[in-house]
């Protein structure tokens, strides 16, 4: 019997054991995995079970120093066979890197969760980009609104990489707004605006890239002024914060938004 002990899930220990066992033909074995061991009492009970099991082996990936000392003392007293899979490597890395380890259980699990949360946020931003499906607004951490070319999509993707689920909605003249935008708290909505001259330059450049004439209403200053006035009225009606992005990089706007979200979270808590 092989006992795998961990103060986290124990997946690492079990994978290593299975990899080692695979090197032996017709090996008969059973693995018992014990996860989330946080105290000496629990650890002692498991070790006692292993002790009375014939030909048992205890493999562990514990990082809690108190538990490590306990299991080593238990091994010395009972002569039970144990293998520490992670401490020797941590000690060598500490020496080579010149850094002190955190001795924090479940650290790799949290890193994995952070990665998958970021992927989920990116997929969310793509799915609910450009007002594709307003039903997603209720599940968003943030909804960004603004006229065309105010950096809604790039900002949504940038924030998604910080694990923030963002949807965005373009404000277009003579277009009905989805009812969902009025069904979420205004502090989860951010309005973006830009200077008319800057928008004119950006839109003309966009039309050139697409091989279209810059005489289109899309880039006309008169139309832009009308759009901005319309958007400003919507944002004031909603009561959301408005950020002028005309002289701001994506990173700068992002920091402002994160600050507002953190402030709102503090108020709610």
In short:
The chain has 269 residues and is an alpha/beta fold. The protein has helices at 11-21, 40-52, 65-78, 87-97, 107-127, 152-160, 196-209, 221-238, 250-268, and strands at residues 2-5, 31-34, 57-60, 82-84, 142-146, 166-170, 189-193, 242-244. Helices cover 48% and strands 12% of the residues.
Would you spell out the secondary-structure blueprint of this structure?
Elements: E1 2-5, H1 11-21, E2 31-34, H2 40-52, E3 57-60, H3 65-78, E4 82-84, H4 87-97, H5 107-127, E5 142-146, H6 152-160, E6 166-170, E7 189-193, H7 196-209, H8 221-238, E8 242-244, H9 250-268
Parallel strand pairs: 1-2, 1-3, 3-4, 5-6, 5-7, 7-8
Helix pairs in contact: 2-3, 5-6, 6-9, 7-8
Description:
The protein is α/β, with parallel strands linked by helices and 269 residues long. Helices cover 48% and strands 12% of the residues. It contains nine helices and eight strands. The strands form two sheets. Strands 2-1-3-4 form a four-stranded parallel β-sheet, sandwiched between helices. Strand 1 (2-5), helix 1 (11-21) and strand 2 (31-34) form a beta-alpha-beta unit. Helix 7 packs across helix 8 (221-238). The two termini are 48 Å apart.
Can you tag this structure with a few keywords?
8 strands, alpha/beta, elongated, 9 helices
